[in-house]
Design a protein that fits this description.
The complex is a heterodimer.
Chain A (H helix, E strand, L loop, with lengths): L1 H4 L1 H17 L4 H23 L7 H23 L1 H4 L2 H4 L6 H28 L10 H26 L3 H15 L14 H4 L3 H15 L5 H25 L3 H4 L1
Chain B lengths: L19 E15 L6 H10 L5 E15 L3 E5 L6 H9 L6 E6 L3 E4 L12 H11 L4 H15 L14 H12 L6 E5 L7 H16 L3 E5 L3 H7 L2 E6 L2 E7 H33 L1
Parallel strand pairs in B: 3-7, 3-8, 5-6, 6-7
Antiparallel strand pairs in B: 1-2, 1-4, 8-9
Helix pairs in contact in B: 3-5, 4-5
Classes of the chains: A mainly alpha, B alpha/beta.
């Protein structure tokens, strides 16, 4: 399996990604934390003053949604151009190409971990006592990582051939921000659409994280099973598309 | 997909020899060159609306190429521009897929298609050495041991914590070469610029390469530089337009190569003369 065979390379590539990202600005990490917090403040202001919301602890509710969404949005967007940007790793040497995508998504996950730490601190400030359900957090985060990675594979591969995919993806990410329940709860979805609506893996992860951090309950077992099924499906399809497209990478780059 | 670095099986050539390092058998590689290059979804949709079909030109980069390189041998690949030299190397390195035919390499491979693959300007020299080493497949523990040697050879110890961004191109190449030779390859695939830097570093690089050669490293070298080829390689392959013209002793192959070039120039001169005649008669 390439993950074990190339673990040292994955490790070094991931660390290098993080170094380049945060070394250039001293405030690097601080900025990456401020970003979701500021967005939360804006949305909080809009929702609690313009529209009246009944959700309890709405600030935490928003923050979980925003941070969860960012893992997916930032992960796929940076992975999209990863192969293209590091083209010399494809054209000048042979390494399994999925490693490039994998390490970019992994470094995104590591920077989001810090955001989750801040989120955890916020829940304590708001007087929410964590329950044992928090043991599920790392498990779901790993599953979520696999989903983001599985979706990134075809994106990164297609971008090699279609150089305007990033423009389209930006729009899709913006659309997804409203499709996923970042700012609203599942209660506003009409009951007849709910089964379809909750097929979105990002939605399942988001509601599970809210169960864990906000309500202190265990996520619904059935939706976790669906999540696992979706993850496997996304990984298989992503890998298939990637391995089909990677054959001519070196000719296109 | 197999990783060429891990491809350690002993291959037996068709004649039953076991001392073969590289075996290329009826290798064919074609490139599809679209007449209109479409690089975006937008262009594809536009093309579909217009109702145009996709037309490709097939460019045969390699046509039924076969050769074997024995263990410990230094083997040169020469040929005019566009003859498919670099394509052979890229297929061997696993970067390009072969359309048909097989390529087998026996032993640990180090591709040197370019020095300093993956170098990142925003990282320090030290970080880059570890990054490049990992890309070239050197285990971190081994790199720890060879770390001092790399910087000593590159004569860059003073700058180990400086960002690569502030390095001169010569310094970068020196660092890359010093790291790359630490791979201890059994088979080295090299494209052009093998020895780099100023005269004294070049000399050091050549000594290092001679040392590797003596150790029994198999070297496959693609180059335009006939002097380098005849200095290093005992056997040579001459390619022209993707086809093998001849394989044999370096001196003989180079002689043939020179003939081809002369003939090419002759043809060109004749064409030019013909053109002159045409223009004269036109007047």
């Amino acid at each position: 399996m390439w993950i074990f065979e190339y673990r040292e390379l994955i490790h070094i590539l991931t660390v290098s990604n993080l170094r380049v990202k945060y070394q250039s600005s001293v405030l690097g990490f601080a900025w990456s934390l401020l970003n979701p917090l500021l967005l939360m403040l804006v949305l909080y202001f809009v929702y609690s003053h313009l529209f009246v919301t009944q959700t309890k602890n709405f600030a935490i509710f928003l923050l979980v949604g925003i941070i969860t969404f960012r893992v997916w949005a930032n992960g796929t967007s940076s992975a999209l151009s990863s192969i293209f940007e590091q083209s010399s790793l494809v054209t000048k040497i042979y390494i399994p190409r999925q490693i490039i995508v994998f390490s970019v998504v992994l470094s995104g996950l590591i920077s989001s971990l810090l955001e989750f730490v801040v989120l955890f601190a916020f829940t304590l400030v708001f007087g929410i006592i964590p329950t044992t359900s928090i043991v599920l957090f790392p498990v779901i985060l790993v599953i979520y990582f696999l989903i983001v990675y599985g979706m990134s594979l075809p994106l990164a591969a297609l971008f090699v051939y279609y150089r305007d995919l990033n423009q389209i993806w930006t729009v899709i990410v913006q659309l997804a921000f409203f499709i996923c329940p970042v700012m609203y709860s599942l209660a506003i979805i009409p009951a007849q659409y709910l089964p379809y609506y909750t097929l979105n893996p990002v939605t399942i992860v988001m509601t599970s994280f809210r169960d864990i951090f906000l309500y202190g309950t265990f996520p619904d077992l059935l939706s976790l099973l669906i999540l696992c099924g979706l993850t496997i499906g996304i990984l298989i399809i992503g890998t298939l598309i990637f391995s089909r497209l990677e054959r001519r990478f070196a000719e296109e780059l | 997909m197999t990783n060429p670095r891990m491809n350690r099986k002993i291959i037996t050539s068709r004649s039953g020899e076991t001392d073969i390092a590289i075996d290329v058998f009826h290798l064919t590689k074609q490139f599809l060159i679209p007449q209109e290059r479409k690089r975006s979804i937008f262009e594809h949709v536009k093309g579909l609306l217009k109702g145009g079909s996709y037309r490709y030109e097939i460019f045969s980069a390699l046509d039924d190429v076969s050769f074997t390189v024995k263990k410990g041998e230094s083997f040169g690949v020469i040929g005019p521009n566009g003859s498919g030299k670099s394509t052979v190397l890229k297929v061997l390195a696993g970067v390009l897929y072969a359309d048909s035919g097989t390529v087998e390499i026996n032993g640990l491979v180090s591709p040197f298609l370019e020095l300093g693959v993956g170098f990142t300007p925003d990282l320090t020299a030290k970080e880059n050495v570890y990054l490049y080493g990992a890309i070239m497949g050197i285990p971190t523990r081994e790199l720890d041991q060879r770390y001092e040697e790399i910087f000593k050879f590159a004569e860059l110890k003073r700058f180990e914590n400086m960002k690569l961004r502030h390095f001169s191109s010569g310094m970068i190449l020196r660092l890359a070469f010093s790291t790359a030779v630490q791979t201890d390859p059994e088979v080295m695939l090299v494209d052009e610029g093998l020895a780099v830097g100023d005269a004294s570093f070049k000399k050091k690089s050549w000594e290092k390469i001679d040392e590797l050669q003596k150790k029994g490293t198999t070297i496959l070298l693609v180059s335009h530089d006939l002097e380098v080829i005849s200095r290093l390689c005992s056997k040579c392959l001459l390619l022209q337009k993707g086809k093998v013209v001849m394989t044999g002793k370096t001196a003989e192959v180079i002689e043939m190569y020179n003939k081809i070039i002369e003939r090419g120039e002759l043809v060109e001169n004749m064409k030019r003369k013909k053109l002159n005649i045409v223009t004269l008669t036109d007047k």
